[in-house]
Design a protein that fits this description.
Strand content: 35-45%
Number of helices: 4
Distance between the termini: 27 Å
Number of strands: 12
Radius of gyration: 18 Å
Order of helices and strands: EEEEEHEEEEEEHEHH
Structural class: mainly beta
Amino acid sequence: MFTGIVEELGEVTAVETLDDACRFRLRGPVVTEGAKHGDSIAVNGVCLTVVDHEGDEFTADVMAETLNRSSLGALKAGSRVNLERPMAVGERLGGHIVQGHVDGTGEILERKPSENWEIVKISLPADLTRYVVEKGSITVDGISLTVVDAGQDHFTVSLIPTTLDLTTLGRKQPGDPVNLEVDVIAKYVERMLGDRVPGDRAQGATR
């Protein structure tokens, strides 16, 4: 479980392409402190398992399903990535509940800079539209953000200087892909209410 508060901007140092997977080596001095085999680290919002750890670098395997559902397949040596360790029990939940299970990918459509912040417009897959609401939470490349405007095929977020300086969103340009994870609570609510929809009660009673 993560919070969407990025701990550091890491870097991909090597990519090994396998038959149906990839093996990434990533550098992150903060997230590798005390890391061990089997630990979880979110990479651009995707929960990955530490396979090997040496110094300030760690290795993680990414299976085909993850490559197909996320933008990790576009990473190469030198790519910068958002890194976050799991939240420890008893710590403050600074962002929102983030699982590290990407629901789909969007694309940076537009950036509108201003004096103290920047508005970024991001495309939204049709099957995720119902989960995104104005002033709701969404995770973009592992960053917990508040939705400013929610359209049928896009949404906007407002980025403060800290987010621009310390995450990948300060560097991505129109056309670049981003990982999206919607609020998991919305998905659970939809599933529970679906059992109460008229005409579906008989089916719901058997579940």
